[in-house]
Amino acid sequence: MRSDMFKVIVERPRLKRGDWLGGGRESGFRQFLNSEERPAKVGMRAGHVNRKWLNENLAPLRRFLISCVGRPWDKVRSELVAQIDQRSTVQQHIMEHVDDYVLTQVIAKPRSEVQPGKRGVVFLYRAPYWRAGTLERVEQSHSPLFVDPRTGILRETQSQQHRKASKRADRLAEIAEQAKTIRVMDSAHQLRRFNDVWYEVTTAPMPGHPLREWRKRRMTTGEIAKLERAWCVLEKRWMSRWDADSYVVSKRQLNGKEVAKRVGRSL
């Protein structure tokens, strides 16, 4: 471990206005933002809830810990403690981030207790209190490393690979569920099932700029009401970018033979 690790981690420029942590539109750092109670003039101090925040560069710490996979955790921790002044609050704060990357309170159980008929060992850890504090497998955590309770060796949790596989499975399940109600013919034509009736519909892009999910989560009721709207002939209601990125401009109900030919064959 390099002797100036604490400097590399802690010494970093402050965030600029507009950055996602301390940015000008982050509600956690600004008050009176989009509020009717906002006074005519707001001072620099009064306009912020929190004006100071930490901005550590934790990438070197993460790389060092990952490079120590296969080594005894006690020796790795000793190297960290040797280079950090315990009397310094700033340097001591680094050790708090170690717990974010390494799971130390891990239990090893026979796999047969979790998956009957399977051999091997399953490593479990205590989930945070906001997730009910239950025992979960280490690959379900967000920490890249854990300490093997049998040997004390630092090992990888494979959590990133697990999340990718989980997202892939969720995406495939979503596509399979969507196929029950929507069949895409081309960019403007679809087969849709609405109220248990199949229609051939023509779609068009919703007016206005596309909205990302993070933007939707921050929008207020007043901002949603100001979005451009279009009439969806299928659902018979006004819709905006908040509801969907496209809407139905025309529809034609399919008869039984068309449903059997165009929909039933791929069910």
Oligomer: single chain
**Strand proportion:** 15-25%
Per DSSP E runs of 2 or more residues, the count of β-strands stands at: 12
Q: Distance N terminus to C terminus?
A: 59 Å
pLDDT averaged residue by residue: 81
Number of helical elements: 9
Order of helices and strands: HHHHEEHEEEEHEEEHHEEEH
Rounded to an integer, what's the Rg over CA atoms? Answer: 27 Å
Q: Order of strands across the biggest sheet?
A: 7-8-9-12
Low-confidence segments, given as residue ranges, are: 16-28
The shape, in one word, is: flat
What summary fits the major beta sheet? 4 strands, antiparallel
Written overview of the protein:
- The radius of gyration is 27 Å and the shape is flat.
- It has a domain at about 180-265.
- It contains 9 helices and 12 strands.
- The strands form 4 sheets. It has a 4-stranded antiparallel β-sheet with strand order 7-8-9-12, with no helix packed on it.
- With about 270 residues, the protein is α+β, with helices and mostly antiparallel strands.
Fold topology:
Layout lengths: L4 H6 L48 H9 L5 H10 L6 H13 E2 L2 E5 H4 L6 E6 L8 E3 L7 E3 L6 E3 L2 H20 L3 E3 L4 E6 L2 E9 L7 H6 L2 H5 L3 E4 L4 E4 L5 E8 L2 H8 L4
Parallel strand pairs: 1-5
Antiparallel strand pairs: 2-3, 3-4, 5-6, 7-8, 8-9, 9-12, 10-11
Q: Short summary of the structure?
A:
The protein has 267 residues and is an alpha+beta fold. It has helices spanning 5-10, 59-67, 73-82, 89-101, 111-114, 159-178, 213-218, 221-225, 256-263, and strands spanning 102-103, 106-110, 121-126, 135-137, 145-147, 154-156, 182-184, 189-194, 197-205, 229-232, 237-240, 246-253. The chain has a domain at 182-266.
